[in-house]
Amino acid sequence: MTTPGDDPAASARAESAALKDMLQPVRGRLRLAQGVQLIGSAATVLPFIGIVELGRRLLAGQTTAGDIWPIVWLVIVGLGARAFFGALALGISHFADVDFQSHLRRRIVTKLGRLPLGWFTRTSSGEVRKSAQNDVHELHYLVAHADVETTAAVVTPVFALIYCFVLDWRLGLLAMATLPLYAAGYAWMIRDMTEQMARMNTGIERISATIVEFVSGVAVVKTFGQVGRAHRRFIDAADDFNDDFAGYVGPMLRIEAIAAMMLSAPLVLLVNLAGGYWFTSSGWVQPIEVVGATLIALVLPTSLMAITMALHSRQQAGGAARRLVDLFALPELPVSADPAVPQGNGVELEDVSFSYQTTAPASVGENGRSKALDGVDLVLPAGSLTALVGESGSGKSTLATLVPRFHDADTGSVRIGGVDVREIDPETLYRTVGFVLQDVQLLGISIRDNIRLGRPDATEEEVADAARAARIHDRIVALPRGYDAVIGDDAHFSGGESQRVSIARALLADTPILVLDEATAFADPESEAQIQQAISTLIDGRTVLVIAHRLGTITHADNIVVLDGGRVVEQGRHDDLVAAQGTYAAMWRSYTEGGLDIGRDRTSEPADVVDRSELENTGAVR
User: In what ranges is there compositional bias, type Basic and acidic residues (predicted)?
Assistant: First the structure.
């Protein structure tokens, strides 16, 4: 869509080109539907001819069956042909629309499946939903109705007006008398509609942003008594939008009212009957011809309204088509033409650097990119547990997401089993690398299908075994519909319960490499204990890379990697790093002295959710 800074003409051309490209698969059928509608529109004029001829016969006293029935049948055939061919045209266009939407949604799903996973972390679910649902729906009217109805709206008046001119050229001009005034008013209304719509969209976006901002922080705002100040930005945005909207729409509505009056039935009827009386009294036409021409004149406004609606629909569809074309133009995750299979479950990062694209000036980073990792070298032996620690923004999450290929490294390589992840087929990669993140995503489908997302062919018993290992089976079977319960409808889980469902999903997928964003960081004590037990089962025997938010959870990791500014500054085991009195030792002192391990006995050793030896001693791992 356009923004105030865009060139409206260039934007309109881009939307038109996008729409042309988008409709290409159904263009032939839409042309066929228009051709069929053309026949139906031509038949529309037959009833008018029949009415005039019937009137002539009656006025002339020719009332025999031989005179009347042919004309009656002409009217019946005209009405029947109009209904049949009109319905057939709409049937063709609607079937084309069904195929078009199916094709388009499949294309969107295919495209989404080929995008890097990192794109989804940068893009809100609302934007994805708008592309897959709203934008496709915007094209429905255009495909299913607009072309057919526009053809009818244009062709029907043309045939009817031709008949008016056949009756008398003066009647033809009289039927069109009010149209130029309407056209002039409508042209004045839409003279800068593209630019004004862009301003309206910008205003709505600003209001939406302030609403989200206020709602997201409403608890904090109310706590500190700053409600009035906090929603001032929303009030200002709403007032600005109201002023712009009123300034644009107010004068337009007045012009629209005058223009619409030019097509109102009373005015059209008055003009045609008054003019018809003049023509009749002058001896130019017959009264019955005035009646036929007046009926035709009354049909014209309806046709123009249909054209106006089609134009508005095309404008909306153009914006939707442009957004979809932009989506399809996004760079896809490159797939190797000759993929390799990892030979083992070890992970290596060699001289890895990565930068995010930023909207800030290029001075922030090279070519406007902000560097997140810089020359990282790291080895994760098969079956080992590696923990990433560091301050917020140090690059922990970025490094972890390079392993399942959420992004590709700018320089260097990430290898699994000796093979660069860019050379591994994505399907093989995701059977090799699994991940459990803090931000749990459960789909609005059954619990069973949520758990077996990674293994759709898993049996009922395998699903239940994974749920038992994740300590969530009892909670599921307690629901009225058990595993058939649909998330969001008859299954509502707490954060800790949702996390255990995601752990069951990872257990069932059974990937040999696991990326774990510590799942217990915000859990209550009871949920935390159950999640810890589930995680202990999950990580057993796997190569694990864990993003640690609390140092007490990774004291027995095989390797602790300390990141700072996108670089590895320290790595080793917990005791060795504490003894080294470096960055990690300072972090550990802050952790232990700051009382961050909430809910634990401070006199005992900090609990460790990934301590394999301790878990084996307690029987949590078999």
Answer: 598-615
The answer to whether 161 and 172 have CB atoms below 8 angstroms apart is yes
* Helix/strand/coil for 517: strand
Number of structural domains (the chain) is: 2
Selection from 609, 123, 88 nearest residue 387 by Cα = 609
Give the CATH number of the domain where residue 608 resides: 3.40.50.300
Last residue of a domain, one of 328, 355, 386: 328
β pairing state of 369-380 and 347-357: antiparallel
Half-sphere exposure of 369 (CA within 13 A, CB side): 12
pLDDT above 50 for 3: no
Vertex 593: Cα angle to 587 and 595 (nearest 5)? 105
Same domain, 369 and 322: no
Q: How far apart are CA 403 and CA 394, in angstroms?
A: 17
What's the pLDDT score for residue 559? 94
DSSP conformation class of 364: G
Question: d(Cα 115, Cα 117) in Å, to the nearest integer?
Answer: 6
Query: What is the CATH number for 142?
Result: 1.20.1560.10
Instruction: Let me know whether 324 and 368 are in one domain.
Output: no
Cβ atoms 57, 71 nearer than 8 A: yes
* Res 166 pLDDT > 60: yes
Residues 354 and 317 in one domain: no
Neighbours of 338 (CB within 10 A): 6
- What is the Cα–Cα distance from 179 to 264, expressed in whole angstroms? 11
Share of the chain residues as helix, strand and coil, in percent rounded to the nearest 5? 65, 10, 25
State the amino acid at position 462 in one-letter form: E
Whether residue 455 sits in one domain with residue 317: no
Residues 511 and 363 in one domain: yes
Please choose, from the candidates 454, 553, 440, 568, the residue with its C-alpha nearest in 3D space to the C-alpha of residue 505: 454
Whether residue 162 is contained in a domain is answered as yes
Q: What is the pLDDT of residues 326-343, one digit of tens each?
A: 888 888 878 888 889 999
Q: How far is CA 451 from CA 5, 117, 502, 506, in A?
A: 47, 20, 7, 8
Cβ pair 148, 310 in contact under 8 A: no
- Residue 112 within any structural domain of the chain: yes
Lowest mean pLDDT among 27-41, 302-316, 402-416, 603-617: 603-617
pLDDT at residue number 33: 93
Question: Are 522 and 480 contacting, i.e. CB atoms less than 8 angstroms apart?
Answer: no
Q: Is residue 277 part of a domain?
A: no
Range of the domain at 379: 347-618
